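Supplementary Text 2. Reproducibility record for the structural model of the 257-residue chain.

All settings were left at their defaults, and a single model was retained for analysis rather than an ensemble. We include the record here because the model underlies the residue-level annotations in Supplementary Table 4.
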Amino acid sequence: MTDQPVGGASGVQSLNRAFELLERLADADGTLGLSDLAAATGLPLPTVHRLLRSLIAGGYVRQEPSRRYTLGARLIRLGDAASRSIGVWAGPQLRRLAVEVGETANMAMLEGDAAVYVAQAPSAHSMRMFTEVGRRVMAHCTGVGKVLLSRLDDAAVLRLVRRTGLPAMTDNTITAPERLLAEVARVRQQGYAVDDGEQEVGVRCLAVPVEGGPGSIAISVSGPSGRLTEERIPQIVPVLHRVAVDLGAELRESVAG
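Retained model, structure tokens:
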């Protein structure tokens, strides 16, 4: 007797199609109708409907009163567990970054409308920045948040800030949508973001994207602006990019393996 995949080839195909529906809902940044999902995936309407019924029963998809579909609450637990796992795995590279730069290193992911810190490596200084792992922060006023916003198109950025607003955390916080779009465009062009006292007075943060992850990921270093000076930015950004490239390569290898 030879071993067969559970459910056979048709079961594997259904599983792949269900995952594709979840990906399409995640990409939509909102809700989609049955015909939207069929058009996005190229699947017949009856097939999409059958798969959605199974996903709804499992809590992975929710049907709105409008009869449109969105991601379900069951995915939150899976996302939290995945974020913690990625954070633990990234620890060695973050510690390397903290040692090379001499400031606290962080990793964050975009979850819903917020940037969520999933890992941290503290600096050796007695006066250092500390961010609790699991903390959710607004994207418009943080280095990691700006990087994560830069991975979206402008329309998605505007939808996000319409939901969250642009509250002023300090006098330096960007509070106008057009200014935020200009800042996000600059981040895309230069490949890194700066939080210059925009979330907390006297704190500067530099952040870059990590390519190759299961979602939008950013890493950063943060410290007192008197120590993490503007003059140091040209020296620190290449270090951030090197670590980000190594992290991305490891992520791709783990996915491929």
